[in-house]
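Field notebook, page 342. I keep forgetting to write these up properly, so this time I am using the form the group agreed on. The chain and the ligand, adenosine-5'-triphosphate, are recorded exactly as supplied. Prediction of the bound pose follows.
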Amino acid sequence: MILDVAKLNLSFGGKRVLNDFGFTLEEGETACLLGHSGCGKTTALRCIAGFETAASGSIALNGRTLFSGSLNVPPHQRRIGMVFQDYALFPHLNIAANVAFGIAKQPAAERKRRVDELLALIGLPDYGKHYPHQLSGGQQQRVALARALAPRPDLILLDEPFSSLDADLRTRLSQEVGKLLKQERTSAILVTHDQHEAFAMADKIGMMADGTLHQWDDPQTLYRRPATPAVAAFVGQGAWLTATADADGSVQTAIGRTAALLPENHHGTLRLRVRPEHLRADPNGKTNARVAECAFTCGGFQYTLQLDNGETLHWLDGSHRTPDSRIALRFADTACPAAFHN
Ligand SMILES: Nc1ncnc2c1ncn2[C@@H]1O[C@H](COP(=O)(O)OP(=O)(O)OP(=O)(O)O)[C@@H](O)[C@H]1O
C-alpha cells in the first residue's frame, strides 16, 4: 500500500463536504475519484495534496504520515506531483525548462537525461526548445504530466486534466496517460466526472456522492456489482424496473424472471438496475414494449422502450425499428442485474 486515507471529515460553512472519506491505494495503481459535480472529489484531492486541511482523519503516503490530528506536512514536502485542468505551464519557459522546473537542484547532466527521457516518454522528443503556446492542448497536458513526473514523486494527482479537450482527444489522451503512468511505475489519483475517462485509465475507481465514498473497486466490479443505487445509476446506461424476489433468489418483473444480485435481508418490492445488455428481443414472446425513441449510434440503434405498465427501459440493437412499433422483450440468459431496496 502506498497511500492510506482514513476517515477524513471536512465542512465548508456548515455543509459537510467530506464524510468519513477514506480509501487505500496500492503502489503503482492509478485510481479515479468519480462523481457528480460538487460531490467533493476536488476537495478530497486537495486534502491529499495539502492545499486543504480536514477537520479530522489521517493521510499517510509511503509509510509517512502527512496529516493527522497533530501533524500537517506542507504541500511542497509531501513528495506529490500535481497536474491541473489548465496545464499551468510557465509561458516564458521552453518545454525542456518547464519539464526541468522541479529538478533544478539536480546536476545539469542528470537533469538533461531526465528531461530527454520524459520528452521521449510523452512522444515529444523534439519539442524541448518550443514554447507552450506553440503546442496543442493535448501536447501541453502531456508536458504538464512530464513536469509533474520529473522529480519522481511518490504520487501524482491529476485534477480534471482532460476536461478542456474535445471528447475524442480526451478518451485517447486518458488512455495514453494511463500507459505513461504505468511505464513510470507512478501511483496516481485522477479526479473526473467523466466515466469514460475513468474507465479508460483506472485500476480502481472511487465513486463519490455527497462527500461519501460509495464504492472503491476495479471498473468491471463497479459496473457489474454496484454497491449502492447511486453507483448503479451513475455508471453506464440503464433504467430502474420494479421487481419482487422469489424464494429461489431470482426476481420477477414486468418482462419476466431473471437472476439478480440481491441486497442483504431483502424483503418486499425491490428496484432492479437493468442495463441494455441484460435485454433480448424475444421473437416468440408476447409484445410488452413500445418503441418510444430510436437513435442511430455508430454500429447500431439505441432504444428507449416503454413497457405496457409505464416503466421505461434502454436497449441497444443492430436492427432498426420505427417509433411506436411493438416488441417482445425478455431477459438475456446470462443477465444478473443488481437489485436494491426501494
Ligand atoms: N473553499 C471552499 N469554500 C467553500 N465551499 C467550497 C470550497 N471548496 C469547495 N466548496 C464546496 O464544496 C463542495 C464540493 O466541492 P468540490 O470542488 O470538492 O466538488 P467536485 O466534486 O470536485 O466538483 P466539480 O466536479 O464541479 O469540480 C461544493 O459544494 C463546493 O461548492
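OBSERVATIONS:
- The chain has two domains: 3-232, 237-341.
- Helices lie at 41-49, 95-100, 108-121, 137-149, 167-183, 195-201, 219-224, 229-234.
FOLLOW-UP: compare against the apo run.
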